[in-house]
Amino acid sequence: MASNVLNAVVLGSVYTLFALGLTLAWGVLNVLNLAHGAIFMFSAFCGYLITQHHALSIWIVLPAGMLVGGLIAAALEVLAFAPIRKRNPDATEAEMAMLIASVGAGAILVAVVQNVTHNEPKGINDATFPVHNYDILGLEVSNIKLLIIVLAIVLSVALALFVQRSRVGRALRALSHDPYTCGLLGISANRLALTTLFVGGALAGVAGVLLAVYQNAISPSMGDPFLLKAFAVIVLGGVGSVWGAMAGAYLLAGVETLAIVYSTGTVRDAIAFALIILLLLLRPQGLFARRTWQRA
Amino acid sequence: MTVLASLGGWFSENEALTQSSFAACMLAFSVMVALRAGMFSFAGVAFWAVGGYTAAVLVQHGWPTVAAVAAAIVLSAALSLLIGLVLGRLRAVYMAMATFALVMIVRVIAVSWESVTGGSTGLYAIPNTVTTTGVAVVAAVSAVIVALLDRGVIGRSLAAVRTDETLAAANGIDVVRHRIAIFVLSGAFGALSGAMNALLFNTLSPDQGGFPLILDAMTMVVLGGAAAWWGPVIGAFVVIWLPEILAFTGDWRAVVQGALVVLVVVYVPGGIVAVVRRVRALVVTTT
């Protein structure tokens, strides 16, 4: 029982790190970034590349993964999203165009990894983070599990405080509410968009490296199931809400762990989809969203 | 006539690609009709798999081709209606997300329902019961349906739903009902494309659907353009022949295709249809 709870918390922590970037970009910029799963995968893949011949400390691999994820997401904003927003005055058309561009960009990343690895699963060098098990009151806890949980909580609380308290965070919330007035007040939407995507991509990078170390495997399609899970998390927590994403992630992980314990693996994957449909039907604003303007 | 004959000869030399292109037209139509009603839906890609598996399994059980394809369409249309009732009122990005999730869950079902779908290896030795002429006729009929959607009261209602929901509603157009109807049509087109594909090429596996097929469907519609029926047709032919055209890129074809999508969406919004129309407008005004 206790070990199931622990696994649910680890899973929820990875979901949180993954979903935060997606929900933030969606809430603030109305971008549904379908390349997010590919960015997550690519960061883990870069972790494999740099540790391929020589083991490095996790405290080098993790920041490297963050940087890769952040830079790719930022490049996507500069090369695709920003030009699309500039050329499309109609918001809905711009949203659709950005979505399509993200599908194309994600395909590029996946195809690159497929070609380089020839579809063979790869792993980050074991010596990067030697896994130890500790016995805590009869419960077997590994250091990688602890690292995932602690990092997820620290980073998401830091992000929540950043959005709620800092000057940039206030600007982000203003932007999600009314981009036009933000422009009048001298808030640069483009610079904020870049910040948002960089932070989101960096969080996906952390999640990718951590998962790759935890499961000791990297494959080109590893981001796909997480995208599905993140949608459920976002719909549960409400688009753009950091606390909502955390709550949604741990809730989904808990329900999925219950499903694994009491039934088969197929049911587990169906839960996320069932939740999405059910919530869109009954409560499209999410379980925790209070007011429409609190989208970031 | 000799020109046509030589063209016919060229196509029959590349018969598999020709068949594939015609089957792909329906997939492109499926995304395109949804866009015409202001919806961004990947559901056609999900129903491509549903239709493909349904038709393949039924034909393997001795059903006549027409009945199997009809059953695939009816089943997918019914499922589309159920899902459309939930998603019909959603905004563009929410609908994209939910239908993207639908594609992934269909893939999960295809992999795990082994007794029917053959699991991750998929189905093989599917009877080859559709001919090139057959799929060409189906594509032509589908194109006519899509072209007719642009005309008359339906055409203007859809244009209103797409461009301004509030205005459409104020003029007595039931926005949600129109959207659900088009969502069902989109599912039917997707199923038709999948069924044709399965009955043309003997095999069907979960890997043929999913994210790669989403990319293909997007490329077709984005490249061709969604403003006229011939946009997706051109897009479908270009995407299917792309491996031939881009043979020199070898393994990097998917990278080129992804980059192509991004470039077209940023710099050529509206695709080939928009370019042709702009050129035509230029010619008309200058003469």
Mean pLDDT of chain B: 89
Q: What structural category do the secondary elements of chain B indicate? A: mainly alpha
Q: What general form of chain B does the structure show? A: globular
Oligomer: heterodimer
Q: What radius of gyration of chain A results from the CA coordinates?
A: 19 Å
Record the strand order, biggest sheet of chain A. 1-2
Weakly predicted, low-confidence segments of chain B? none
**What is the number of helices of chain A?**
11
Radius of gyration of chain B: 19 Å
C-alpha geometry of chain A: globular
Give the helix tally of chain B: 14
Helix % of chain A is over 70%
Number of strands of chain A: 2
Q: Alpha-carbon distance between the termini of chain A? A: 36 Å
Q: Indicate the mean pLDDT of chain A.
A: 87
Largest protein-protein interface: A-B, 49 and 45 residues
Largest sheet of chain A: 2 strands, antiparallel
Q: What is the string of SSEs of chain A from the N terminus onward?
A: HHHHEEHHHHHHH
Uncertain runs of chain A: 290-296
Number of domains of chain B: 1
Task: Please specify the SSE layout and strand pairing.
The complex is a heterodimer of chains A (296) and B (287).
Chain A (H helix, E strand, L loop, with lengths): L1 H28 L6 H16 L6 H30 L3 H27 L15 E4 L2 E4 H23 L1 H11 L1 H6 L4 H27 L7 H15 L4 H21 L2 H18 L14
Antiparallel strand pairs in A: 1-2
Chain B lengths: L1 H12 L1 H22 L6 H18 L4 H23 L4 H21 L1 H4 L14 H17 L3 H12 L1 H6 L4 H27 L8 H15 L5 H16 L7 H15 L3 H16 L1
Helix pairs in contact in B: 2-7, 2-10, 2-11, 2-12, 3-4, 3-5, 3-10, 4-10, 11-12, 11-13
